[in-house]
Amino acid sequence: MGMIYLTTCARLLAQAHGGDAAVWLDLLNQAVAARELAVPREGSGVSVLPGGVSFIPCRGQARTPVAGFIRWCEQRGYSLEAEAHVAPPTAPVPQVVPVRQQQTIVIEAAARSLGYTDPMNIPYGGKGKIRAACTKLTDAQFKRAWQAGVDEGRLRSSGRPA
Asked: Is the pTM of this model over 0.70?
């Protein structure tokens, strides 16, 4: 099954049974010290990365065989999901909205708050009112964000009066 880092083991235990992962990691390190959980020595304890760069793993970066970790958990009554051993759970990656797009969203919100229901049809003089409502944006930011909104098809002035 391979090897698993003790920090990953601690995170799995914390997720399954609650508590802080640091407390679980301390418990796992105590189990290693008591030789209840095997952590094979990797040479001199110095790991070598590609390119010849070496480092000494920090506490908690020790690895143990997955089968040994599962056995240790079972002996102590700690249940874990079978799939969790192979791939530890990961948090969803948050969507990052670019700053210019955030500024365009602010402009659209200001337009709606001023009563312009269609940001693609801002009447003559409306752009200035929207600019005045966007107090957090500088003139340059407003100008660039407005142009980005126009380029993306999200904002448009209807032009000068007849």
From this structure: no
